[in-house]
Amino acid sequence: MGVGGAAEAQQIRDLRSDPNAPIVVTGTRLTREQARERAVEFVRQVGVARGQQAAARWIDPVCPRVRGIAEPYSGIVEARMRGIAAEVGMRVAREGCDPNISVSFVGDAEALMREIDRRSPTRLQEVPPDARDALLTGDAPVRWWYLTGTRSRHGTGSTSQTLNTQADDRAAAGSSISNPSSPTEALSHYDSSIISTQVNRAIVDANVVIDLDRVEGRALEAIAAYAAFVAFVEVRTSDPRAPGSILGLFSTDPETRSLTEWDMTFLRSLYRLQLDRPARRHRGTLVRDLVNAQTPG
């Protein structure tokens, strides 16, 4: 990726470090039927609330940390991620916080992933089996994985132990990847509900690894937006192909530079969801909000 000379200067002109800067979104009007088809397919591709598993999202304030590129570029990426989080209604931790989102720019992502798996395979314990090979041996420009915890539906009344994250000893490429301890969960419930599942699934740690060689030529603004989306949403595929979304950056929409209107609507809907609901309700709400945003009135 061009992080030197003229390329650096252009990226700085393209991307402001002000976290309060407006996020430019783009989109086209669809018929209601087209919007619904697209919304259903988008939610399916992302993989949120797949099958019987309810959606997960961040409940604690997010604290992104970018490594592997020099200042001011790491600060630009962090600021953009913080700005997007605030824009969609997420809680954002203060500067100087302990990071729970690690974004690592590396020269050889595949080698780093192999080293992580060799040293501590439990770090990837929540990666679905069908996605593990792609994460370890694939050629994706960006790779990611999550750790999640279960909380009571009230958020603070849970006796569950969320996954504890610790800084690694920088196993490869000067990057730092979070290391979980084994969780112990014991939730107590004192009420009942026909609608509520009584629990919330929360993302408690996210890691994003960006291969510098494979993202070369993409604007830093676009890389920051992509990293934000996959860090804030439990994206279940290593190769999402979503037209009209930042997720199409490396496939269908290489010219995308920021989150689209579609992406922002999805994120806002996700962060308004009542988490203690079945997966089918989550999918239905996400689809409904996407359709309504595209076909007002």
Q: How would you characterize this protein structure?
A:
33% of the residues lie in helices and 14% in strands. The radius of gyration is 19 Å and the shape is globular. The protein has helices at residues 5-14, 32-46, 73-87, 109-119, 129-137, 220-232, 261-270, 279-294, and strands at residues 56-58, 64-67, 101-106, 142-152, 165-166, 179-180, 199-211. It is α/β, with parallel strands linked by helices. It has a domain at 5-17 and 56-240. The strands form 2 sheets. Strands 1, 2, 3, 4 and 7 form a 5-stranded mixed sheet that branches. Strands 5-6 form a two-stranded antiparallel sheet. The chain is built from 8 helices and 7 strands, in the order ααββαβααββββααα. The longest helix has 16 residues, at 279-294. Residues 2-6, 12-17 and 157-194 have low confidence and may be disordered.
